[in-house]
Amino acid sequence: MSRNRSSHGLFWGSLLLAVLAGLAPFPEAVAVLKPWFLGLVMVYWLLEAPERAGLGLAFALGVAADLIFGTLFGEQALRLVMLAFIVQRFRPRLRFFPLWQQAFAVGALLLNDRVIAAAVRLLVGDGLPPATFWLSPLVGMLLWPWLFLLLDQLRLKGREREG
User: How many domains, the chain?
Assistant: First the structure.
């Protein structure tokens, strides 16, 4: 039972930290480089614990993130559901890629997310985003191996403590 409690704590704690990291202010000069932390953490859990993370959770977290971040209602929900669908569809392949290839795949997923976000902006009449809008997926791709290793290490240590 404690194993279950500990793993739930890591799961929900990592998602909460991802939301808080998304709320953290970045200096204006580097704010465009801020990766989509919630998307990165969701990708990890979709790959490593698909029984916990799925389309329903992606939608619920997206709606909550829309309310927390003050974005267009439903935008992050749509983006997270699209991300979750693609990861679930290609999970068997993604999971067994070497970490550097996985990073490129995550970069492609984040770039796809940016395309969706730009399409939503166009639909609501905000116009095309600036060129710097497209830098964030690159930072997410570079951050992925470190985030994956950190979460994996924490998850495995939690298993060892209870086992």
Answer: 1
